[in-house]
Sequence to fold (500 residues):
Amino acid sequence: MPTSSLVQIKGLRDGILITLGSGEWDYIQALLFTQIDERLGFFTGAKLALDVGSHSLRVANMTALRDKLSEREISLWAVVSESPKTVNTAQLLGLATRISMQRPNEGSPKKAKEKEIPKGNSALWVEKTLRSGERVKYAGNIIVMGDVNPGAEIMAGGNILVWGRLRGAVYAGVDVEKGHTGQNKDAFICALTMTPSRLQIASEIKNPTDHEKFQKAVKVSLKDGKFHAENWREK
Amino acid sequence: MSAKIITVTSGKGGVGKTTAIASLGIALASLGEKVVCVDGDIGLRNLDVIMGLENRIVYDIVDVVEGRCRLRQAMIRDKRVPGLFLIPAAQTRDKNALSPSDMIRLGDELRPEVDWVLIDSPAGIERGFKNSIAAADRVLVLTNPEISAVRDADRVIGILEAEEKGSPELIINRVNYEMVQNGEMLSTEDVLDLLAIKLIGVVPEDKSVLVAANQGMPVSLDNDSRAGQAFRNIAMRLTGKEVPFMDLAEKDGFWDKFSKLAGGN
Fold:
């Protein structure tokens, strides 16, 4: 494959999109920096989105890449990928994982399929404590094995289950693309201690006061459009 | 020798990072270790002031990285404690004068020279912070028992975990025992409950810290200071010794006793 098709550079409305082809990651990365260094003046100060295709990137890979870019004063704000591992990594580092491209006719059938809301019994598995500033977003259900600290956010199209202490902000049954709106009124939120700073199910929002918080396992759902809390126990 | 590189960071400013670095540096050097303290706060340096070495600065960290001097020329020897050195920050540059890879190179150069490299991180989570943790083997997160400082510490711990730096260790600084007893201040347990990382030290609030800092005489040089003792304990724990945590309920330092006797407050 000619190297030009391995690193494709496009202008976006607000920055630059670089699409990387498949191959050995170190090689592709080296090609990328060759291209950038040849036209450093053009790239300096740019906001860069990277489409890494199917490359599976670990945190170490991505931070190395981001640091190298930042040394050239290029800010990496988004990493788009087909690999769930890479998407997860990007989210951990606080990078965007979707960009609006304004070119609907180019969308491949595969991309369209990704946008479908995952249904059924599957869930995004998060096995760590979410700390201040961390955000997990997923169109389906989310399960967190750990605490959700103040300042952390979880946004799910489906239900949210926290096997730990919930002290951050949670949004269940919302449209994760559009942000803070949603239609899924059947969504629920469970936590071992239900002490969130902010609760949202579909478009109902609550900032619980101290006496609306529970130091025990509670399930919160909507009943006739109002928040309803019950003990969370197996059925 | 192959030095261990330790960074002290906090997210929030003003919680006592620089004092902690100076105190730990002196405490480690007093144990017979060879230590270099590195000021990572380019543009807002003050580790040199706290250590009382300001007048002796000729070269700084940016001079080393940009090749204007050799590493050893920028290492200022502290004459009070054998084996203690400072590499000051540049005051006339900013955080962008260094990159994470510069710090890794500097760390590798320092490793054969000393036993410990202590890096003082600037406040914030931007470039200066990224620089200061780039070379670290161990990161100590310093916080105060107040909600905003703990929240920032949580953010920093999240970033460190995401960068696969391993789990950092926690120092809680400026704990006022009486205020905790009265429920006016977060307790050690409250802080640990949220942050859930390993505790390596609890430092009581101590007026002598400020006095010492203004005199360029880090508090761990002061044998009567409770905060100084707490930092000496942390230094011992860093070297792998088991030291029990100090009983904060014990009355403060010599001067408090003295002023009580003298009828002061």
